[in-house]
């Protein structure tokens, strides 16, 4: 970030514009950290903003001539460079905002590139060499990349730039699953296909779990890799895989440079579905990736959000309720709301502290004659709002799975444009206990008297999504409400909310102290 700030200040000084470094840093941080704008684009936006502030039209301002660099000379973000490089490898984009992504290389090394869809640049071909003009460098977690945007240019070269293929540029080592400790490594792996999942994108051919005797790991086989389909339960030698990491979890990707060879000898895989499966109660589910049996009643069926999902909703027993997903290709008969079943060989999953179970090809359902008792699902609670939690206000969700994006990134589907949503996550206190609640967009709009479009306008004008959360806190904190709705995990999903009596002076003082404890 410091290098980008210095770059902005230098460009402004070239136009005889002096701006405090703190103002530049503050505005740059808002764009990059709050709105998820790529650093190169953010640099250009900040420069243009301050030029306009000083009466200089950005259209008359041209950045200084880009530096001509080798890949190995790239040592910081926010630099505008020219680069002669070969397209070593093309990967599948994880977002419609990305036109192409992959690896570029020259004799000094390789580097990741991203070509934005709106850049309107020609399609690159793997193996061809190009002059990349006015590309901007970027950095994430100590690794550099280059971005191609509207100001960039691409010219095909008649000469071939010497660049080692990734498989040759570094030693490809055969590893065990448990030995995978870093991303970006090219490895060979002898593993068994433990489980196949339904792909969540057309760019993915197959995905699921592979494993050996040391553990299991998620894999993704890209649709354009040209690799034959894998069979569940079969063992393979996976050659030239690349490791990846997101939020501390590793995975492996199969692309055009990868290879798959069937093995005659079966690889022993730990925690495979065919292993020991334990029958559990819902309240006993405490980790993801476990294969379990479950006796439960279908409490509620929801509308599937994707064609890959056959059914989804809530199942429950006397200890609680949990979300379930039945994949379309699982070929399992449809479940009926209100009926009880023995769910065999389902796999647990977790997101943001909430567990769910998935039904796939290896799962089985058996109707039960006896009805499973489900703990009461409706709850009422009256108390004062003592905390508005992180993730409240104006948020963006992944358009595929509807999870909340973190700085423009979905934990399952990578970088996404996202769709806006409005919600409140709050804590109510009645003086004896606390209760967490989730209030959806419709009820948030009604409660706050503001539409989502108005919230978006408010955030854009302030250049800060948190302004919406601040408004919610100002209006709700310390006020009494009665809420009712179904309970899921530790939350009441609010279907009705209405003001309750105001707090007495003594209650207000006590609640103020308790709010401090919660926060």
Automatic annotation (TrEMBL):
Specify whether DNA-binding is a keyword of the entry: yes
The record's annotation in CDD domains points to: SoSSB_OBF
List, in alphabetical order, the Gene Ontology terms for molecular function in this entry. Answer: DNA binding
Q: State the Gene Ontology BP annotations.
A: double-strand break repair via homologous recombination; response to ionizing radiation
Q: Which InterPro entries match?
A: NA-bd_OB-fold, SOSS-B
Which keywords describe this protein according to UniProt?
DNA-binding
Q: What is this protein called?
A: Single-stranded DNA-binding replication protein A
For this protein's source organism, the top of the classification is:
Archaea, Methanobacteriati, Methanobacteriota, Stenosarchaea group, Methanomicrobia
């Amino acid at each position: 970030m410091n290098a980008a700030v210095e770059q902005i200040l230098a460009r402004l000084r070239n136009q005889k514009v002096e701006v405090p470094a703190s103002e530049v840093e503050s505005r740059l941080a808002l764009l990059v950290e709050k709105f998820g704008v790529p650093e190169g684009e953010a640099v250009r936006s900040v420069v243009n903003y301050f030029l306009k502030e000083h009466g200089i039209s950005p259209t008359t301002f041209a950045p200084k001539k880009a530096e001509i660099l080798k890949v190995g000379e790239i040592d910081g973000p926010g630099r505008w460079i020219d680069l002669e490089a070969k397209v070593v490898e093309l990967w599948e984009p994880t977002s419609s905002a990305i036109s192409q992504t992959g690896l570029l290389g020259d004799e000094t090394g390789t580097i990741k590139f991203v070509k934005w869809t709106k850049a309107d640049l020609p399609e690159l071909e793997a193996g061809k060499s190009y002059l990349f003009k006015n590309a901007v460098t970027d950095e994430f977690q100590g690794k550099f990349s280059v971005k191609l945007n509207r100001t960039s240019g691409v010219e095909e070269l008649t000469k071939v730039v010497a660049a080692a293929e990734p498989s040759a540029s570094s030693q490809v080592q055969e590893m065990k699953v448990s030995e995978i400790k870093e991303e970006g490594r090219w490895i060979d792996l002898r593993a068994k296909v433990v489980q196949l999942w339904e792909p969540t994108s057309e760019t993915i051919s197959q995905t699921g779990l592979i494993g050996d005797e040391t553990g299991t790991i998620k894999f993704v086989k890209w649709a354009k890799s040209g690799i034959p389909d894998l069979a569940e339960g079969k063992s393979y030698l996976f050659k030239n895989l690349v490791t990846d990491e997101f939020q501390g979890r590793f995975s492996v990707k199969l692309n055009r440079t990868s290879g798959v060879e069937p093995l005659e000898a079966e690889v022993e895989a730990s925690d495979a579905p065919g292993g020991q499966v334990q029958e559990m109660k819902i309240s006993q589910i405490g980790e993801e990736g476990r294969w379990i049996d479950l006796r439960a009643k279908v409490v509620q069926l929801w509308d599937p959000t994707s064609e890959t999902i056959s059914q989804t909703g809530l199942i429950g027993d006397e200890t609680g309720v949990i979300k379930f997903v039945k994949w379309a290709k699982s070929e399992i008969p449809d479940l009926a709301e209100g009926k009880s079943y023995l769910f065999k060989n389902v796999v647990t999953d977790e997101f943001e502290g909430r567990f769910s179970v998935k039904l796939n090809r290896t799962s089985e359902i058996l109707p039960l004659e006896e009805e499973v008792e489900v703990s009461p699902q409706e709850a009422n609670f009256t108390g004062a709002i003592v905390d508005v939690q992180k993730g409240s206000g104006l948020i963006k969700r992944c358009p595929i799975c509807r999870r909340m994006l973190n700085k423009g990134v979905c934990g399952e589907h990578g970088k996404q444009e996202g769709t806006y949503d409005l919600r409140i996550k709050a804590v109510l206190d009645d003086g004896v206990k606390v209760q967490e609640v989730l209030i959806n967009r419709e009820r948030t709009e009604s409660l706050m008297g503001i539409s989502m479009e108005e919230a978006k306008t408010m955030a854009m004008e302030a250049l800060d999504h948190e302004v919406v959360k601040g408004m919610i806190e100002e209006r709700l904190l310390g006020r009494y409400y009665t809420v009712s709705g179904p309970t899921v995990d530790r939350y009441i999903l609010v279907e009705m909310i209405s003001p309750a009596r105001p707090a007495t002076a003594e209650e207000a003082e006590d609640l103020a102290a308790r709010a401090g404890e919660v926060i």
